[in-house]
Automatic annotation (TrEMBL):
Catalytic function, reaction form: tRNA(Val) + L-valine + ATP = L-valyl-tRNA(Val) + AMP + diphosphate
Subunit structure: Monomer.
Source organism of the structure: Bradyrhizobium amphicarpaeae
Cited NCBIfam families: PRK05729.1, valS
Name of the protein in question: Valine--tRNA ligase
Every Aminoacyl-tRNA synthetase class Ia domain range: 18-610
HAMAP family, alphabetized: Val_tRNA_synth_type1
GO cellular component: cytosol
Gene from which this protein is expressed: valS
Gene3D superfamilies linked to this entry: HUPs, Isoleucyl-tRNA Synthetase, Domain 1, Valyl-tRNA synthetase, C-terminal domain, Valyl/Leucyl/Isoleucyl-tRNA synthetase, editing domain
Motif ('HIGH' region): 45-55
């Protein structure tokens, strides 16, 4: 028995237990042993994280695909897991230690600190997983993985060692994003560009051989900088090779102010003749662009800022080299001074010597660490790198050839731009939490990379015996006694970037490098659902690693979803106070309502403007379905054994079968094409408009009438159509549909494992042969994605039933629309005249007269050859229907009202267009404000169009 009121919280808790106890989501179920697999790997959320709206969207879309394919009979593996999140997790634990006034990381030592992190993970690491379960994610939770699981750690070590052996991992001194607070390199994704109001300092650099005078422009070159403190590390000045002002100076030197070092003037396209003086200072050790310019011209790299963000000048061999006499005192004065304090002092010093031409206010973007919030320093340091350029070539080719496709396709351009301009990938991090780099150093710094310490020791001892650094006897003793080799060989303290381990996710989670059967069955995966911001950081790297180690792309399709913004289109942020918590929405409206909202708004390439009112609206949609199901149950609607909907006789029932088949095709094809919003829209229209508003209403006279074959058939069909709805809606709203299925469908088994209404056709032998050939002779399975487009669309249709019931619906709808436009009170009944009716209409009208009169508030339906005077004429499926309104409405008053409303719409249009025509407004206003004005204009234009249509109809009644 269906409860009177729909209570999402009760249903969600109960259904979660039912699914878990029945192992509904387990991959490799015995009944699916011979089924074609369908695999998705979850983008592993940080173990420190909690569910945010991006997670909710991403996982809702993945779940729709998984539930859809599971119902189509596929052996679905949705692989769950979490990422160890190096910096984030280490910060969480360090903060916890501080709050509890316990010894810090350094005081504890590495081993004890890592024990503490694992303890934290055991206590708090499942938060995000439990929240995903609340959302309804149908992962195979028995296979949950963690990027630092033993098996995944083995995969990471093997990949590192093999890439190093192949020359694709190496150590190099390059610039990195350096966090001076966390004291580690960080990835570009962990850098936030923040707008800062600063200054632009124009500095005079004296030309060698000329007497410097601030009043003589020929004695110096002017360069502009936002970072005067880095000028101490300048090793060149660049001018454009076609800038005639400087052609004669290229190859000469300037004298670095305050320091006195001679630095070269070089010609390089990096300098923009249109900006400032056209000359730029080059500091290769403190700017990423300058680093590249320096490489092109062989300029020295002089690092003058240390790990903590302080000037580092004393004992700095690079800085002190080639300095004129008398600068050592300057080095002492500024040594270990914070970079921003040093900036102020250096500007004062430059000003006192006449080296500053002018200072201008300057607003610019400054990189900050997303976790430390400190200004990021481009820092020259030794790090481990991956030769991404080499690995990227097959990954680029795979997308160009169509082995992997992006949806929407325009994201391929972004992928290619990144991949074709790829730089070496810095994979080392100066942290303790993470996969420690499997490299050991000998006493002379020689590196030994190996999968285990024992292997590294063996290589090292063999090498040093051969080099006669130690004797063979010493080597044997060290090999046998760990204490005797203490300090002789030491492990690299750094850990790997978390993106390194997550790059292996599609195959490491399946058991690789072990010869696991899951690797053979579930790799490559089918689809990846992710956000655009990690196409490079994660998607591209999975492509590179998958192709290198598995010799196949890791996924056939990459679906890129957009951002979830607030209802005005602004990006959600804590600082703006506009963050919407998905868990709060689930608490208030239910997970189904939130899921359906996100799916319904997930148009390809368009950001989602999320309003709480939309979620509330879809909760009402769930309530509508609940009440319709209760109505069916109260009227004893049930599907009898052996019932065949294709054999029903009543026109109304054949119509709902026709509409159900049409909707099934729409939903199926839309999900296949990753058009989630179209799929959600199709099922919404079918449930609310077709089934509830029309079918159930039109069926009521039969259901409430005397017993008859027609009543029996209608009861069966009401229940059958409801069950089809539950199937189609299940991927989007799994909780309510599973509950209603259990209570009303009275079938054996779960809805989650029921058959989708439109199942894939069995491929013919010819198709199988074609697919096998396309897949290649070594593939153990035919690619599931190749089978997907082959469907049997020979399902039920009845054009005659659709024509008859469609006529009834269109007629009632148009009459209701006119009544609303003309402000006709509900109690006022109007007549209807069918003009020049065809034979079909003449036969239909009497059959449906009572229902049409009741639903359209009509007093009478008659036939005539021409429309009466003063009647509003409607065109219904090519035929004219007339509503005589003379004497029913005050035409003059109604016209005045419409004119007034049109005037208001015109004013709204004019106001919005004036703002949008203002270039200053469009350029300076927030993106969401401009978009809001565009929406106001479009709404006003649409409102005016409807009012003009109503005014035109009113003229007919005059």
């Amino acid at each position: 028995m269906i409860e009177k009121n729909y209570q999402p919280a009760d249903i969600e808790a109960r259904m979660s237990v039912v699914w878990e106890d029945s192992l509904a989501f387990k991959a490799g179920r015995p009944d699916r042993r011979d089924a074609v697999p369908f695999t998705i790997v979850i983008p592993p959320p940080n173990v420190t994280g909690s569910l945010h709206m991006g997670h909710a969207l991403n996982n809702t879309l993945q779940d729709i695909l998984c539930r859809f394919e599971r119902m189509r009979g596929r052996d679905v593996l949705w692989q769950p897991g979490t990422d160890h999140a190096g910096i984030a997790t280490q910060m969480v634990v360090e903060r916890q230690l501080t709050e509890r006034k316990q010894p810090g990381r350094r005081e504890m030592g590495r081993e004890k600190f890592l024990e503490r992190v694992w303890q934290w993970k055991a206590e708090s690491g499942d938060t995000i997983i439990n929240q995903l379960k609340r959302l309804g994610a149908s992962c195979d939770w028995s296979r949950e993985r963690f990027t630092m699981d033993e098996g995944l750690s083995k995969a990471v070590v093997k990949v590192f060692v093999e890439l190093h052996r192949d020359g694709l991992i190496y150590k190099d001194k390059r610039l990195v994003n350096w966090d001076t607070k966390l004291l580690t390199a960080i990835s570009d994704l962990e850098v936030q560009q923040t707008e800062v109001k600063g200054h632009l300092w124009y500095l005079r650099y004296p030309i060698e051989g000329r007497t410097f005078s601030p009043e003589d422009p020929s004695s110096f070159i002017v360069v502009a900088t936002t970072r005067p403190e880095t000028m101490l590390g300048d090793t060149g000045v660049a001018v454009h090779p076609e800038d005639e002002r400087y052609l004669k100076l290229v190859g000469k030197n300037v004298i670095l102010p305050l320091v006195g070092r001679k630095i070269a003037i070089v010609a390089d396209d990096y300098s923009d003749p249109e900006k400032g003086s056209g000359a730029v200072k080059i500091t290769p050790a403190h700017d990423f662009n300058d680093f590249e310019v320096g490489n092109r011209h062989g300029l020295a790299r002089i690092s003058v800022i240390d790990r903590e963000g302080c000037l580092d000048l004393v004992d700095n061999e690079d800085y002190l080299r080639d300095l004129p006499e008398g600068t050592a005192q300057f080095a002492e004065e500024f040594h270990k001074v914070d970079r921003f304090v040093a900036r102020k002092r250096i500007v004062e010093r430059l000003e006192s010597f006449g080296f500053i031409e002018r200072i201008e206010p300057h607003t610019h973007m400054v990189p900050h660490g997303d976790r430390s919030n400190s200004v990021i320093e481009p820092y020259l340091t030794d790090q481990w790198y991956v030769d991404a350029k080499t690995l990227a070539k097959p990954a680029i080719a795979a997308v160009r050839s169509g082995e992997t496709n992006f949806v929407p396709k325009n994201w391929e351009k972004t992928y290619f731009e990144w991949m074709e301009n790829i730089q070496p990938w810095c994979i080392s991090r100066q942290l303790w939490w993470g996969h420690q780099i499997p490299a050991w150093y000998g006493p002379d710094g020689k590196v030994f990379v190996a999968e285990t310490e024992e292997e590294a020791v063996s290589h090292a001892l063999g090498y040093y015996v051969e080099q006669e650094v130690i004797t063979a006897e010493q080597g044997r003793e060290m090999a046998l006694d760990r204490n005797k080799r203490e300090g002789f060989i030491t492990r690299d303290e750094d850990v790997l970037d978390t993106w390194f381990s997550s790059a292996l996710w599609p195959f490491s989670t399946l058991g690789w490098p072990a010869d696991a059967p899951e690797v053979q069955r579930y790799y490559p995966t089918n689809a990846l659902v992710t956000g655009f911001d990690i196409i490079f950081f994660w998607v591209a790297r999975m492509m590179m690693m998958g192709l290198h180690f598995m010799k196949e792309v890791p996924f056939s399709t990459v679906y890129i979803h957009a951002l979830v913004r607030d209802e005005k289109g602004a990006k959600m942020s804590k600082s703006k106070g506009n963050v919407i918590d998905p868990l709060n929405l689930i608490d208030e409206y239910g997970a189904d309502a939130l899921r359906f909202t996100l799916a319904a708004m997930a148009a390809q390439g368009r950001d989602i403007k999320l309003a709480t009112s939309r979620v509330e609206g879809y909760r009402n949609f769930a309530t509508k379905l609940w009440n319709a199901s209760r109505f069916a149950e109260m009227n004893h609607c049930a599907v009898p054994d052996g019932f065949e909907p294709a054999k029903v006789k009543e026109t109304l029932n054949r119509w709902i079968a026709h509409e159900s088949a049409h909707t099934t095709r729409e939903v199926t094809e839309a999900i296949e094409a990753y058009r989630f919003n179209d799929a959600a829209g199709a099922i919404y229209r079918f449930v609310w408009n077709v089934y509830c508003d029309w079918y159930v209403e039109l069926a009521k006279p039969v259901l409430l009438g005397p017993d008859s074959p027609a009543k029996d058939e209608t009861r069966a069909m009401v229940a059958w159509a409801r069950d089809e709805i539950l199937k189609l809606l299940h991927p989007f709203m799994p909780f309510i549909t599973e509950e209603l299925w259990e209570v009303t469908a009275k079938r054996d088994g779960l809805l989650a494992l029921a058959q989708w209404p439109l199942k894939p056709a069995e491929p013919t032998p010819e198709q199988l042969a074609m697919l096998a050939a396309a897949a290649g002779p070594t593939d153990p399975l035919v690619s599931p994605m190749l089978i997907m487009p082959i469907f049997d669309h020979a399902d039920f249709t009845d054009p005659a039933a659709e024509a008859e019931i469609g006529w009834v619906i269109d007629l009632v709808t148009q009459i209701r629309s006119v009544r609303a436009e003309m402000n006709i009170p509900p109690a006022t009944l109007t007549a209807l005249v069918l003009v020049g009716a065809s034979t079909e209409t003449s036969e239909r009208a009497p059959r449906w007269a009572e229902i049409v009169k009741r639903m359209a508030r009509l007093s009478d339906i008659s036939f005539a050859d021409r429309a009466p005077d003063g009647a509003v004429q409607l065109l219904v499926r090519g035929e004219v229907a007339a509503l005589p309104l003379k004497g029913v409405i005050d035409v003059a008053a109604e016209r005045a009202r419409l004119d007034k409303e049109i005037g208001k719409a015109d004013a709204d249009i004019k106001r919005a267009e004036a703002k949008l025509a203002n270039e200053k407004f469009v350029a300076n206003a927030a993106e969401e404000v401009v978009e809001e004005e565009r929406e106001k204009r479009e709404a006003a234009l649409a409102r005016k169009a409807k009012l003009l249509e109503a005014l035109e109809r009113l003229k007919q009644a005059s």
